[in-house]
Structures are given as structure tokens and as C-alpha cells.
Amino acid sequence: MSILPTWCPGCGDFGIWLSLKNALSGLGINPDGGVVVYGVGCHGNMYDWMDMYGVAALHGRTLPVAQGIKLVNRALPVIVVSGDGDGLGEGGNHFLHAAKRNPDITVLIHDNQVYGLTTGQASPTAKAGFKTKSTPEGVVDESINPLTLAITAGATFVARAFSGDPTGLTEIMKAALTHKGFAVVDILQPCVTFDRVHTYQWYRERLYQVAQQDTRIQAIEKALEWGDKIPIGIFYKEDKPTSEDREPVITDQIPDLQELLSEFI
């Protein structure tokens, strides 16, 4: 077995992998103290390289699995590691409804504008004009903005980070992991094999730190910035009851098995 994950040398996934391990360690979350649900894509290879309970979900189906786990054990930190294609393409409908329900889950989106595992087709976040294997003349559709989508759908923690800044990414992950509610971190990551435009240098010349916005409208306006200047940081945060808080059948008391059986037998 390889000592390191089988990502391309220089892949942004390495920075995300390192940052997640540092964030979990910094918060004192042990390998048996949480669970990670992985989607299908290059990011999913992290499953084999995290010393933590994990579930490999079907393509686009990380969030239903994660919400089920959270309902069973509310005290367990549940983390979703997903891609821009996996989470916003195949899993886009799940993303919308999870955000509005506000489960206490942390979602880490590996956002590189391509389907890297299937050799570089355009993903839902690919910007207009971006040339890929599936769009040789350039993308003609409007791209999905993970931040504005999350904010308008009801997510209570919305941030953007950069895989080339493990220190900053670690701190944002820690903030997301400690937030009670649906926390979304859109992580900009270069794909060194299939995207020769959005390189580490390209991002570093444009990224700047943004302060947390006071209202959803202000956060949406800031999240729409893209081009010569691209903001990163925590855009929006609020405290609201989670879906687990509102679920009437959840109780902290351990049910009596015989009492339960008597209702059906």
C-alpha cells in the first residue's frame, strides 16, 4: 500500500486532508469520537487515509447517510467530505433540503470546478468560458455558487477557504465543526492535472480575507464576488434550532425494550 493517498502530486486534496486532521486533533476529537461520510470522487480516496470511523456513500448521497447517523447519535460529530460534482450535481437536491432542515452536520466541499476522478469534465461550479473535456468550446451555463446556494437555502454557517492555506483552512474547519447546525465550507482547490487555469498562483493573486457579514443579504452580495478579487472566510453564521432539536421522537432517555415491544406485539 502507498504511504500517501493516490492523489496527483500537488492536488489540493492533500491540503484539505492535512487541515481536517489538524482541526480534529486541535478540537480533541479522537478517531472513535466522530464519523466522516465520503462521497464519490477524488476526495473519496480520503476514506482509506483517515484514522476515523467512515462511511463511503453512493454518488451524491452523502447527506442522507450523514443525517441518518446524526439522528441515531446526536452527540457524535458528523462530517461530510464531498466534491462540487458529487455534492452539488448528483447531490444538489439533498443539499438544498439538508440546508433548510439545519441538521448538526459539517459539510466540506472540495471545489475544483471539474470531475477529477472521471478525467476532467466540467462540474456545476465551473465558470462560464472554462474549457474542459466535456466543454471544449468553454462552459456556456451559469455556474452554481455554493455559498449563495447554502445561504438562501437556510444553512446556518457558510464559509469559503483555500486548500493552499492549511493554517487558515484548519481554523475555518474548527469553527465549522464547533458550530451547532448545518455548516458548509466551500474549499477552493486546484486540480493540477485537469485545470491549468485555476492554479495555486491564480488563487493567491486574488484571494482576500472577508469579515463575517451581519445579514444574509450582505453575505450573499459578498459571496457573489468572483474575478480579480475573491473573498474567503466566514460569510454568515446564525444560531437556530437544529433538525435534531425539532424532531419529536428523539429523546435522551434510553427506551425500555419490553415497553416498545408491547406496543407491537
Automatic annotation (TrEMBL):
Residue intervals passing through the bilayer: none
Domain Pyruvate ferredoxin oxidoreductase beta subunit C-terminal: 191-250
Top-level taxon: Bacteria
Single GO MF descriptor: oxidoreductase activity, acting on the aldehyde or oxo group of donors, iron-sulfur protein as acceptor
Residue ranges of coiled coil: none
Keywords: Iron, Iron-sulfur, Magnesium, Metal-binding, Oxidoreductase, Thiamine pyrophosphate
Keyword Repeat: no
Cofactor(s) this protein cannot do without: Mg(2+); thiamine diphosphate; [4Fe-4S] cluster
Keyword Transmembrane helix on entry: no
Gene Ontology BP annotations: cellular respiration
Domain Thiamine pyrophosphate enzyme TPP-binding: 40-187
Entry protein name: 2-oxoacid ferredoxin oxidoreductase
Species in which this protein is naturally found: Candidatus Gottesmanbacteria bacterium RIFOXYB1_FULL_47_11
